[in-house]
Amino acid sequence: MILQLLSLLLMLWMGWQDLRRQRISNLALLALLACALLYLYRHGQLLGGATAEQKDILLALLLVAALTLPGMTLGQLGAGDVKLLWVLCWVFSLPQLLLVMVAGFLLLACSSRWMVQRPLPLAPYLTLAGLLVWLGGEYGR
């Protein structure tokens, strides 16, 4: 429970950091990864509540690489956003991660219609989508 709460707080903090400064702390990313790995070690499942299999985590990492690295090289995604998605591979199962990514990008697309003055950070939307998926998995059982 403590690791889950700490992870939620870290995700909220990273979303806030990205929204305010358009930077995500590497220390916060490492702390979230450490929480996820420790939770996986102690409970045998991911922080998002799903059972973890090595092939699923590897597939999630490959999928995130395939979907985000082109956007990063074209300057459409920040390195912090990509690193956050890589860490989320250890937090959520593949279906949950896909839902987080789709919801995060949709929320970003919706808000970008109203805020065209400056580039929009992705992490707040990924955080919001992740929290919704997490709470849905936690209370939808």
Automatic annotation (TrEMBL):
One of its GO terms (cellular component) is membrane. The chain crosses the membrane at residues 27-44, 56-78, 84-108, 120-137. Gene3D superfamilies: 1.20.120.1220. Keywords: Membrane, Transmembrane, Transmembrane helix. One of its GO terms (molecular function) is aspartic-type endopeptidase activity. The keyword Repeat does not apply. Residues 6-109 form the Prepilin type IV endopeptidase peptidase domain. This is Prepilin peptidase. It comes from Proteobacteria bacterium 228.
